[in-house]
Amino acid sequence: MSTDPQHILIIGGSGGIGTAMIRELLARFPQAQIAATHHRGQPQVEHDRLIWQALDLRDSAAVDSWASGFKRVDWIVNAAGYLHGGHGGPEKNIRALDPEFLLESIRINTLPTLLLAKSFSVALKQSPAPLLATVSARVGSIEDNRLGGWYSYRVSKAALNMALKTLSIEWKHSHPRGCVAALHPGTNDTALSKPFQTNVAADDLFDPTYTASMFADLLSRLGPADSGRFWAWNGETLPW
Asked: Can you list the positions of beta strands (E) in 41-199?
């Protein structure tokens, strides 16, 4: 079981879940210092224990430069994600596949976690209980795929899950006190899911504040024995 984190990074902090995570962790851990990133979104939270950083998570050199300013990091929570935008949206069938949309999905949903792990490996190693957790999605589960469609989002999240699983194996040796986790948030009432909420039952559409609280409960319980698993917000383990 992890000790309370003192140095936390929230990636994608201007998004719905990211903003909720910042508020939850500021309240839950009154000694913690939080650094959060934003890219296109505008930060919604200000606090004397919170520092914002504009960062393009696709830029390896920029992530490296930011990481160079940290001697120790306890938790990294990556809440950045891409489902629709200027390059397109979820595909209903293979005929709708657009290469640029697929590549952009991978650049935002998959690549940043690998860059963060690479750049912050040393800083995380200084923590007594390092944690790297990324918000994934149940639709990234290969075993759980029953509906098809959404090629780019599914592919990018499945690749993310593989990256996290692979990292957890390496870090059992290099970061033996650490934990690597993939997180499924359910469907949250955020800009990311807004165009796709029509068929979501009211009870299945979560306020990000609720999800952030559940994630904080979950992450506080995780330790080395839990590393390399895919977790739902309610603590259920999901199939890869």
From this structure: 50-54, 75-78, 131-135, 179-184, 187-188
